[in-house]
Amino acid sequence: MAILLAPMEGLLDFTLRDMLTRVGGIDRCVSEFIRVSGTLLPERAFIRVMPELEHGGRTPAGVPVRAQLMGSDAACLADNAARLASLGPAGIDLNFGCPAKVVNRHGGGAALLDEPELIARLVGAVRRAVPSAMPVSAKMRLGVNCDSRAVECALAMQDGGAEELVVHARTKAHGYRPPAYWERIADIRRAVRIPVVANGEIWSVADALRCREVTGCDDLMIGRGMVSDPGLALAIVSPGRAPLSWPALQPLIARFWQLIRSHIEPRARAGRLKQWLNYLRRRYPEAEQAYVAVRTINDPELVYQRLFALAEAPRPRYPCESLLAEAVV
Ligand SMILES: Cc1cc2nc3c(=O)[nH]c(=O)nc-3n(C[C@H](O)[C@H](O)[C@H](O)COP(=O)(O)O)c2cc1C
Q1: What distances in angstroms separate CA 52 from CA 14, 19, 24, one per listed residue?
Q2: N or C: which terminus of the chain has fewer CB atoms within 10 Å of its end residue's CB?
Q3: Which of 215, 163, 211, 214 has its CA nearest to residue 189?
């Protein structure tokens, strides 16, 4: 069973990918989408979204990262895919699931799920544009407003040459509201020859087991569940292991802060810390307490200090590499 870390634009960037893959249990990541519309992007545009391209397409923990492209013009997508491939990602993933209005207005993301013929052309153009050894995969929702063409879209991706399919078990109209319709993933899995990865609403080990049972998929992709519970992938792959405790998570948060400080502009730093904390509240009561304490603070240094004033021992200090090692499996 492989566990993939989901792409999440605006949340799960290289900093958080670094943290979550350090904990362990994740086999592969996908970058946030890189939108292609009308121009051949310079190399730096790909590297900005996926700095792992400068490190062999892997996170510092050595987990491979595929780069995700999104677009609706076959020639332009192919040209960009070729340039991207030359930078050495662990593969190229194509986005057929983004529900954002601004993206859909230009015919990208989930809007394409009404046009399976175009989907096949887009995947085919990218497949032909990149070296045959470079994996090309696709990620889809079940449809735009209904799921009646889900299997047709999946077959179009397969026919275009995708070697793997991630299915987020909701339509665009469903947004991110529970439930996820895992049984529809089973229909897709039965219809295609390529491996299908199940995605959507996996928050716990029990969810992972049920999702595998309902979908028949060995492989899972997890997004918000991993951000909320960084030990989730490890707990899924090694039953019986003690859960990642709040104190054990502190060095990871400290390391995250170091990365944010060195890579993210000052005015966005407090927001990034609070954003992760907001997700962690779902799993850790201590995160709830910390979130309440920092919610209204905008000075990033103060946010960090308050956070660790509340943390139970051990309290990390910079540099905290020895503590970090405890969290790294
Ligand atoms: C904030 C946010 C950003 C996302 N960005 C992307 C993206 O860039 N590319 C993509 O294919 N899916 C994106 N998704 C969808 C996720 O990859 C995933 O399919 C979805 O969150 C369901 O999985 P989960 O329930 O495990 O979170 C995003 C989801 C969220 C909530």
Answers
A1: 7, 13, 17
A2: N
A3: 215
